[in-house]
Specification:
Blueprint: E1 9-12, H1 37-54, H2 57-63, H3 84-102, H4 111-129, H5 146-155, H6 162-172, H7 175-191, H8 198-211, H9 214-219, H10 223-237, H11 243-275, H12 292-304, H13 310-332, H14 338-345, H15 356-366, H16 382-386, E2 397-402, E3 414-417, E4 426-431, H17 439-449, H18 454-467, H19 480-504, H20 508-536, H21 542-550, H22 557-569, H23 573-595, H24 601-611, H25 616-623
Parallel strand pairs: 1-3, 2-4
Antiparallel strand pairs: 3-4
Helix pairs in contact: 3-4, 7-11, 8-11, 10-11, 13-20, 14-20, 15-17, 17-19, 19-20, 19-23, 20-22, 20-23, 21-22, 23-25
Length: 626
């Protein structure tokens, strides 16, 4: 094992800018009692879909390119600011949804509706169980909090028309209230004895002061200025804006960044500083908190979509770790020069391909035999096709962009932004040049984020949903283990692709080394998943984790501290990836047993893509019917 942190990535579809629950503004007072179950179910799902999206313009914009085609014709541009009253209303709405759903006979629904009913029922029930933990969520974590994610979402906010520009500026104008709400939540967390550690608060504070600096704004070089200008230039070129209108918007953007958003960041940073001192000095596991174990169990199921108990999860992880460890040891013992061969092959310049586009194209060719072709793009169905709004068939476009220097310290090495449901032709993968992966690592990272990873899975699922009878409400149900488990599953497959590529070039040493690295990374992520459970459920201290990591050759104190702190600050994150991956393997074995000689990887991958995103309990139940 190398003495370093593993690469991480995240996919951003709908950022949880509210606290703990789906963003729901309206409360269902009643639904029409009369009428059949199908009509009542459709009314319910339409209400949930509209309330979830109209109450959060960022969610709306990143979910739908043309909301008017989905019944959302009028809405106010809004960031959902936290308040205790709003949280109570959300809980009441959730209870009302569940009650309404319980009075619908699912046996009277169509097959596709029954599947949505099952998903929705489990999703809402589990969300309701989470309302007993009102202050355990952390929207301002150092590694992935809204202080660093919000600017990325704003920078990638697509301008399709003038209304989008107006909405964008309206959101900027609300960032002071939004951050003020988050600060209120942090104060309430402190009163509840659940505030994050001082060292974590200090990191977030530093980010608040550096992400949106006065100096960059004064020079006009901040990425929220440059990206805004680039988007307006495109609109002018397309005839959607005049040059004078664009100038007016540029001036307003600069004013809001300097007078609203930048002071909002400073206010948040100052407020977090005042909260320090009364809590813990360094991060600790959730089990150290009141009801922390119960919350962790709930969080793991929510995050991973797995219903396994903590004991069952351990019984899954330990044998997996031992198996991967044995694989690495066997491979390393195959030749006396194994370590040198391995390390040399990991050097970026030694990989057969260097350009990211070449790597993506190579994976696309190799995956053809085992993965289904992407469905044809349909931007909202037959009615939209008649209006000329349907997307082109075939592979969607992909842009590779660099993370802004202002955000490099707070972002993963790479991440993918999922496109709207009705605009899957335009996709972006960000590469963090400060921690830019090279060679094999870049190849497998692009497989994780692109093909056959997040991009491929997201586009497949969204096009399938629009072209079939699936209810759009499924777009607001989030299944982290399904998404990240799939990306990790195909990432490991891409190591095999890399070995094939090396063999085709006659470099057997490289192929051998790539196989070692595949099992090394698998073992490493399994170890971190075990540490997640050890820290948050079993209460392992930093000293115990340091000693364990030393036994695997990770002995640098700064590194072990960083590993411990990251896992303590991001509970269940590694399980989202690794337990999701293991659940896919379990599902795959079940498919082999059920289908016998009719099994193929192509059939299994098609099943998984067409039935998801979903929780693994539901996927297991429908497997036998596929």
């Amino acid at each position: 094992m190398d003495d370093s942190m593993p690469k991480l990535s995240f996919s951003q579809k709908r950022i949880a800018v509210y606290i703990g629950l789906p963003v729901i503004l309206g409360i269902i007072v009643c639904l029409i009692i009369f009428g059949n179950d199908t009509r009542r179910f459709s009314a319910l799902t339409e209400t949930i879909f509209e309330n979830e999206l109209s109450g959060n313009t960022l969610n709306l914009h990143y979910t739908l390119a043309h909301p008017e085609n989905f019944g959302i014709e009028r809405y106010d541009a809004v960031l959902p600011c936290y308040s205790a009253e709003g949280s109570t209303e959300s809980e009441q709405a959730l209870s009302s949804y569940i009650d309404t759903l319980s009075h619908i006979d699912s046996d009277r629904l169509k097959k596709e509706e029954q599947y949505t009913y099952l998903l929705l029922s489990r999703f809402l029930t589990h969300a309701m169980e989470g309302t007993t933990f009102p202050y355990y969520d952390e929207p301002l974590s150092p590694s992935g909090g809204m202080q660093s994610q919000l600017p990325i979402l704003l920078a990638e906010y697509t301008f399709r028309n003038v209304q989008d520009v107006e909405d964008y500026l309206a959101l900027l104008d609300q960032t002071d209230d939004y951050f003020a709400g988050l600060l209120v939540y942090e104060k309430e967390k402190k009163q509840a004895g659940l505030l994050q550690a001082d060292t974590s608060l200090m990191q977030v504070q530093e980010q608040c002061y550096s992400i949106l600096s006065k100096e960059e704004l004064e020079h006009g070089t901040h990425f929220l200025q440059t990206t805004f200008s680039e988007r307006l230039d495109k609109m002018v070129a397309e005839g959607l804006l005049t040059a004078s209108e664009a100038e007016g918007y540029l001036s307003e953007n600069n004013r809001l960044l300097s007078t609203v958003m930048q002071p909002a960041y400073e206010m948040l940073g100052d407020g977090l500083f005042l909260l320090m001192g009364d809590g813990t000095s360094t991060p600790k596991g959730l089990c150290a908190l009141p009801d922390g174990k119960a919350y962790y169990e709930w969080l793991v199921e929510k995050t991973t979509g797995s219903a396994l108990s903590m004991q069952e999860i351990k019984e899954l992880l330990y044998p997996q770790f031992n198996s991967e460890y044995a694989q690495v040891q066997t491979l390393l013992s195959a030749t006396d020069d194994a370590v040198n061969i391995w390390l040399h092959a990991l050097e970026g310049d030694s990989f057969p391909l260097s350009a990211p586009t070449d790597m993506i194209q190579d994976v696309q060719v190799r995956m053809e035999k085992d993965f289904p072709a992407l469905p044809e793009a349909v931007a909202g169905g037959a009615d939209l096709q008649a209006q000329g709004l349907a997307g082109a068939s075939g592979l969607p476009s992909l842009a590779l962009k660099a993370v802004s220097p202002s955000l490099q310290d707070y972002c993963a090495p790479a991440f993918y932004l999922t496109p709207p449901l009705d605009d899957t032709d335009n996709n972006v993968i960000y590469i963090n040049e400060k921690s830019t992966p090279k060679g094999l690592e870049l190849y497998t990272t692009l497989a994780h984020e692109g093909y056959p990873g997040h991009l491929y899975q997201s586009v497949y699922s969204q096009r399938s949903l629009l072209s079939g009878d699936a209810d759009p409400v499924r777009q607001v149900l989030w299944y982290g283990g399904y998404l990240e488990g799939w990306a990790l599953y195909v990432e490991f497959i891409s190591y095999d692709y890399a070995a094939e590529l090396a063999e085709e070039r006659g470099d057997m040493d490289a192929a051998y080394a790539y196989t070692i690295e595949k099992h090394n990374r698998n073992m490493q992520l399994c170890l971190y998943a075990l540490l997640d459970v050890a820290i948050h459920y079993d209460g392992s201290s930093y000293e115990q984790i340091h000693e364990l990591l030393c036994s695997f050759g990770i002995s640098n104190a700064d590194t072990t501290r960083n590993i411990y702190d990251y896992i303590a600050e991001e509970p269940a994150n590694y399980l989202k990836y690794y337990l999701g991956y293991l659940e896919i393997l379990r599902l795959k074995e079940s498919a082999k047993t059920l289908w016998g000689e009719e099994y193929s990887d192509l059939r299994f991958h098609t099943f998984f893509l067409e039935c998801g995103p979903a929780d693994f309990t539901t996927l297991t139940e429908v497997l036998g019917q596929y």
